[in-house]
Amino acid sequence: MIPFLDLKKVNQQYRSELIEACTRVIDSGWYIKGREVEAFESAFSEYCGVKHCVGVANGLDALTLVLRAWKEQGKLVDGDEVIVSANTYIASILAITENNLIPVLVEPDPQTFNVSVDEIAKSLTQKTRVIMPVHLYGRMVDMPSIMALANKHDLLVIEDAAQAHGASINGVKAGAWGHAAGFSFYPGKNLGALGDAGAVTTNDSELAKLVATLGNYGSLKKYVNDYVGVNSRLDEIQAAILSVKLKYLDSEIETRRTVASLYCSSIENELLVLPYEDSESVLGDKSHVWHLFVVKSEKRDDLARYMRDGGVSTLIHYPIPPHKQQAFSTMNAICYPVTEAIHSQVLSLPTGPVSEADELDRVIDLCNSFK
Ligand SMILES: *Cc1c(COP(=O)(O)O)cnc(C)c1O
Predict the structure, then answer these.
(1) Where is the PTM N6-(pyridoxal phosphate)lysine found along the chain (predicted)?
(2) Does residue 199 belong to any structural domain of this protein?
């Protein structure tokens, strides 16, 4: 069976360096808030082209803590509205509801799967304070337009960059466009730890300090607590691992792009809709890092079964849209037709950075012979 993403094989490539990094942490006798976290924060902020990176426990916390910090600063109050894509992963929305803010779900563009500035503009109300663009599947949202809209209406922008490490528009990376961004380093993400990890990036020094404080029990000085904080810290050991893997991120992204362009040029079947071509996109060919290669088909479930019978694992991102989840029962009756169509039609093909040529050929052959 060809795996969807062979994480063991991904990490095996860096095995000796990862072991060296872990050994260094074990032997240091220092496991929380030390040199490794500092080193990774500085390497990742440099990579993203921002002034600050604050390591946190996971991607959900990264998003949650930024919104929380804006509340502490008085920029947001309970009941303010946050605009977010209706077809995102549920974490984006949980970060909003966790802060007693109101998620306003916006339909995506059916071609790019991302929110468009026109749809966002239609959803603005007196209570809108924040836009949360989600760079879904690794494809960046049109950030120049979003920032222009946000500036015009004096709104805050937090990028959900959990799937888009290293993507850029006009040379400016995901995580450097908004007033802040949340990243996840969940093992399956393009930059993945060997456990849970996340980070906030921002150019706002006050915000960075506040996020770090809130994630450390609301304490800047040991045993002095200024805020009702939480415990959300990046471990030394995950930071050391991430510093190793960050060095290879760009080359892994290049491999993903090669796989994606091979799929785009070789898969031809009228039952499958391939991802919208970014080479012609105004956002440029660096705006997509292919975290996921997502095709659409009205016969999606048959296609998934056909792929599995042919020995290829696929996944669905995501089978149930957030507004249809039991967790958000108050939204269950609302209808988002574009989002619902996407959820019933999408299928993600293997695009991992360690796929072999014969594996890719098998994926392509199956896609082409599906009837
Ligand atoms: C993975 C993901 C998150 C959450 O990250 P965790 O580290 O799993 O908490 C948030 N948003 C999106 C779009 C994601 O893909």
Answers:
(1) 189
(2) yes
Residues with CB under 6 A from ligand 1: 58-60, 88-89, 91-92, 134, 160, 162-163, 184, 186, 196, 198
Nearest CA-CA partner of 356 in 32, 12, 27, 6? 6
Q: Residue 175 and residue 228: Cα distance in Å, rounded?
A: 27
Q: 189, 221, 296, 371: which is the annotated catalytic residue?
A: 189
Domain residues for the domain of 353 are 249-369
Same domain, 234 and 281: no
| Together in a domain, 237 and 253 | no
DSSP 312: B
Q: Is 163 inside any structural domain?
A: yes
Tokens of 229: 């904080």
| CB-based contacts of 327, cutoff 8 Å, min separation 6 | 90
Residues 151 and 286 in one domain: no
Instruction: Give, for ligand 1, the residue of 84, 163, 289 to mutate: max count of ligand atoms closer than 8 Å to Cβ.
Output: 163
pLDDT tens digits in sequence order for the chain, 371 residues long: 999 999 999 999 999 999 999 999 999 999 999 999 999 999 999 999 999 999 999 999 999 999 999 999 999 999 999 999 999 999 999 999 999 999 999 999 999 999 989 999 999 999 999 999 999 999 999 999 999 999 999 999 999 999 999 999 999 999 999 999 999 999 999 999 999 999 999 999 999 999 999 999 999 888 999 999 999 999 999 999 999 999 999 999 999 999 999 999 999 999 999 998 765 567 888 999 999 999 999 999 999 999 999 999 999 999 999 999 999 999 999 999 999 999 999 999 999 899 999 999 999 999 999 99
Co-location of 254 and 341 in the same domain: yes
Domain count, the chain: 2
